[in-house]
Structures are given as C-alpha cells and as structure tokens.
C-alpha cells in the first residue's frame, strides 16, 4: 500500500515510516523541516529512510495548493498525519505557530482527503487533551472540554474537525492520543534528551512541581506498533489512547536515567509550570479491544536503548 506520512522527519513519523518500509509498503514522506528544533537531527532521521520505496517532499501543510496537487497526483491508500507544531510550553510563547500548523495545516489535509479519499486517515492527537482531569487512568470516554494549553486545544480541535469530515464526507478517521513518547531519535526539547545532556555535562536538572509529578512514558516501538495496527483497521471515526498505562514518578524516572547513563544527576526543584499537568495515565482497554495490542515496554528497558543511542548520536560514548 502507498501511505502518505506527514511529519516524516519527526520522531514518531520517522519510526513509523521505517517500519512501513520494512514491511513492504510505499511511503511518501512530507515534512516542512521546521527549525523549532535541530534540522540536522531531522535530516539524520530522513537519512535512515533512504529506500527505493520512500520519497520525500519538503512541504508545509499550510500550502493548500501544493498539498491538494499531491493528493490528486499520489492518491495515497492511507494517510498517517504526524506533522504538528509540538510542545505544551512553547505554545505559551508562540501561539500563532500552533494555529497555522495544527489548525490550518490539518484543515488543508482534511480537504485533500475529501478530494482523494484514502482508506483510512490516522492522525496524532495528544494526552494533553485531558487537561487537569484528576480521575486516573484517563479514558477516551472522559470529558476533554477543558484544555489548559493552546497545544491541547489545537489537538482537541483536530479530533472535532476529523469527526465532521467523517460524518459529512464518509472519511474513515482515527485519532491517537499519544502519551509521552520516548526512545532513540527522540526530540531534543523533551525530558529524556534534556535531562541526559544535563546529567552528562554535570548541569542541574530543573524538576518541576518539586518532583511531585507522574508521566505515562511510552516507548517508541510500542507507539509504532499500536499506530500501524490502527492504520490497518479503518473505522468510520474512532479515538484511542496509546500509552504504557504505568505512570512513573518523576524522581524515579530520573533515577532510572542515572542508572542507564552511569552518572548521578544534580537536581534543582522548581514550582509547577503554567500549562503543565501533575500526572498522566492512559486507559488502553479500547485500543487493546480494537487491535489486540497495548504498550508494555518497561521504562528501564526503553531508557537503556535510548541511552545507547543518545551517547552515540551526541558523542558522549
């Protein structure tokens, strides 16, 4: 099958495209190579996708004309939409970027799907849509009407927009609420790389809410497995959590990082950040029922693989 993968130079996008190529699919990757974080890292990821069944287009999804032409020319069998302006904290500083990438870009993508319908559109939502919901674990049936960051609001909007196109135009669309993805080739603005760099360089790690935080860290291979199983099961409209359903205390996570890196961390306690949530935890029963899989890689096992890549890529080996 031919798949269009947006955000193909991104963390989840590259790993999904790689697995698709390994199983014999044809992949057309799109990415705007945004300088939000290292373009060098994005290009290094794309290098791993060099294959006779992979083509890459540098394109911004806000360019409606180019995107429409691409859909009409390529007629992809499935669309895996992983391109977005990421980051909860950055959405406080640069809201316009989120409106363009996550709302205008997604609207253009939906129009492309309407004109040249794929068998299935699978798109990245986010665990951030749950806001400050105190009930854990978070289930797809919980209310997501009170986001606490603009990033979360754009992801909730994507779910609503996809539902409209499913209802009006019969597009099979599934949204995936990803929970704290980590692993090799991860984003440099996420805690594994930020913390690992600080530990290796002897700089203090900023620990928010004085360490009283939990995250449902989900290893990248589990994210990919869940995502690709969903791609193969079109539904009129569905939303699934993809998380490890085992939240880890922030200080336990730092201790695990110390063990895999072989070095102690210096810790600087800080208050809670605006837009942040205290704890995340995925209820993955709906995903397991739909595709017979739920993430389960233990944190220490995933961090060991991350640490090996981190030391090699950033020259700490």
Describe this structure in words.
The protein is of the alpha/beta class. The protein has a domain at 2-179 and 220-243 and 281-296: NAD(P)-binding Rossmann-like Domain (Rossmann fold), CATH 3.40.50.720. The protein has helices at 11-22, 39-47, 64-74, 90-93, 95-115, 150-169, 191-201, 220-231, 250-261, 285-291, 299-313; strands at residues 2-6, 26-31, 54-58, 78-81, 120-126, 173-178, 181-182, 204-207, 214-215, 218-219, 237-242, 248-249, 266-269. A 7-stranded parallel sheet has the order 3-2-1-4-5-6-11, with helices on both faces. A two-stranded parallel sheet has the order 7-10. Strands 8-13 form a two-stranded parallel sheet. The model has no long low-confidence stretch (mean pLDDT 96).
Secondary structure layout plus pairing:
Elements: E1 2-6, H1 11-22, E2 26-31, H2 39-47, E3 54-58, H3 64-74, E4 78-81, H4 90-93, H5 95-115, E5 120-126, H6 150-169, E6 173-178, E7 181-182, H7 191-201, E8 204-207, E9 214-215, E10 218-219, H8 220-231, E11 237-242, E12 248-249, H9 250-261, E13 266-269, H10 285-291, H11 299-313
Parallel strand pairs: 1-2, 1-4, 2-3, 4-5, 5-6, 6-11, 7-10, 8-13
Antiparallel strand pairs: 9-12
Helix pairs in contact: 1-8, 3-5, 5-6, 7-9, 9-11
């Amino acid at each position: 099958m031919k798949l269009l993968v947006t955000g193909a130079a991104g963390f989840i996008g590259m790993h999904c495209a790689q697995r698709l190529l390994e199983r014999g699919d044809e992949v057309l990757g799109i990415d705007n190579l945004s300088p939000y974080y290292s373009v060098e890292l994005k290009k290094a990821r794309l290098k791993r996708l060099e294959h006779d069944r992979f083509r890459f287009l540098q394109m911004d999804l806000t360019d409606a004309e180019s995107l429409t032409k691409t859909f009409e020319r390529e007629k992809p069998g499935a669309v895996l939409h992983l391109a977005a302006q990421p980051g909860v904290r950055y959405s406080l500083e640069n809201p316009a970027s989120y409106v363009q990438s996550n709302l205008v870009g997604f609207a253009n993508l939906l129009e492309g799907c309407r004109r040249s319908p794929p068998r299935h559109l699978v798109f990245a939502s986010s665990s951030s849509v749950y806001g400050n919901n105190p009930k854990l674990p978070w289930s797809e049936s919980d209310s997501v009407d009170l986001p606490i960051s603009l990033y979360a609001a754009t992801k909730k909007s994507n779910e609503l927009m996809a539902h409209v196109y499913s209802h009006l135009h019969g597009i099979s669309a599934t949204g995936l609420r990803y929970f704290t993805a980590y692993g090799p080739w991860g984003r440099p603005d996420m805690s594994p790389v930020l913390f690992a760099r600080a530990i290796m360089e002897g700089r203090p790690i900023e620990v928010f809410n004085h360490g009283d935080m939990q995250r449902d860290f989900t290893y990248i291979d589990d994210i990919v497995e869940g995502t690709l199983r969903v791609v193969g099961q079109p539904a009129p409209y569905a939303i699934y959590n993809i998380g490890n359903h085992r939240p880890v205390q922030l200080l336990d996570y730092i201790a695990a990082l110390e063990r895999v890196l072989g070095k102690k961390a210096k810790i600087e306690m800080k208050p809670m950040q605006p837009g942040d949530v205290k704890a995340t935890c995925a209820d993955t029963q709906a995903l397991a029922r739909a595709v017979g899989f739920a993430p389960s890689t233990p944190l220490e096992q995933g961090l060991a693989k991350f640490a090996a890549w981190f030391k090699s890529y950033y020259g700490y080996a």
